[in-house]
Amino acid sequence: MKTLLEYIKEVLGETIVVNRLPEYEMSKLPMYVSQMYRIYTTRLLGMELVLAQLIDEENISIAQTEKQIRNLRNLFNKTVVLLLDHVVSYNRIRLIRKKVNFIVPGKQVFLPEMLVDLKDGNTTKSSFKEKQKLIPSAQVIVLCQILGLSESWDIEQKPFKEIALKLNYSPMAISKAVENLQALDLVTVAGEKEKFVQFNYEKVKLWEKIDENDFWNYPVFKRVYIDSLPPGIKTWDCNTSALPEYSDMNPSRQNYVAIGRTEYNRLNKQNLLRNANPTEGNYCIEVWKYNPGILADAAIFTEQTVDPLSLYLTLKSTPDERIEMALEQIKEKYIYG
């Protein structure tokens, strides 16, 4: 709580007093409140607030949390603010979209009911890095490391030229990718004649580091709808068409397939995407910034489906509870499993 007081003083110039809600008042609240939250009261900018500190942040469900904060507001008849020690970027985006008041000490104050939205304004070098993104080729290298191509092919043990050959990139593209990874402090380069990339974090920490700093590059460049696929085109199931491969979710009615930008440009130039439009069709083609078959073709997963972590990145901001549950299954199996 000391961190919160210091942060509010720093960003809003106010000294606040925070009081824990007495046990006798907690006992009047629904059982889930005491199980999931620590409740405090305070006064900020002339308004009485209830602070709801989430006890278990690791398993946060934004949809569920939003409903609970709304219920607490009705119970107390006061503005309720969610208090978090940490929030990953995609959950922060969901909280903002749902207009949930929240404070992450040291990072952000988002109080839409009070017209306050302040982020960490530090302009140091490290803060500048947090605004950068992985370039597509660098993202492919990271995903290879986290997923693991195979027991016999360790990306950290391969020189740049072998990585380029395996991932179907030019040596120059791999060099640029590694420069990007170095700029974000994710890797160190070793070797003299032949260069090798060494990651600065083990796989779980690597994922979390990138996630926390919002380094991920959204894989999808654009979406185009058509009624039929051109003959001979190679595609990979993606979006909700791919989720059944990696989760318990049933297939969607809409058919989603992914192709790379190079293939899309070729098809478009040859006028093979007939009646293409941005809204409806039997197939939705996702045009990806990198070849969606890179990891599938490396025989990690099925040849018909995009890899699970790229799939996760394309859907992580989708406000649908069924998709959220499916994505949690992907995280548990392919990141933390």
Shape: globular
Distance between the termini: 33 Å
Total strand segments: 13
Q: β content, as a range? A: 15-25%
The largest sheet, given as strand count, sense and whether it forms a barrel, is: 7 strands, mixed
Number of domains: 3
Helix content: 40-55%
Helix/strand/pairing class, anyone? alpha+beta
Mean pLDDT: 88
Instruction: Give the topology string: H per helix, E per strand.
Output: HEHHEEHEHEEEHHHHEEHEEHEHEHHH
Which consecutive residue ranges, at least 5 long each, have pLDDT under 50? 121-131
C-alpha Rg (nearest Å): 23 Å
Lateral arrangement of strands in the main beta sheet: 1-2-3-4-5-6-7
Alpha plus pi helix count? 15
Could you characterize what this model shows?
By secondary structure, the protein is α+β, with helices and mostly antiparallel strands. The protein has three domains: 2-119; 127-201, Winged helix-like DNA-binding domain superfamily/Winged helix DNA-binding domain (Arc Repressor Mutant, subunit A, Orthogonal Bundle), CATH 1.10.10.10; 220-334, no CATH class. 41% of the residues lie in helices and 19% in strands. It has 15 helices and 13 strands. The chain has helices spanning 2-12, 23-26, 31-36, 62-76, 89-97, 125-130, 136-147, 160-167, 171-183, 203-212, 239-246, 261-269, 294-297, 308-315, 321-334; strands spanning 19-20, 37-44, 47-54, 79-83, 102-104, 108-111, 116-119, 187-190, 196-199, 220-226, 236-237, 255-260, 283-288. Helix 8 (160-167) crosses helix 9 (171-183). The chain is globular, with a radius of gyration of 23 Å. The model is unreliable at 121-131 (pLDDT under 50).
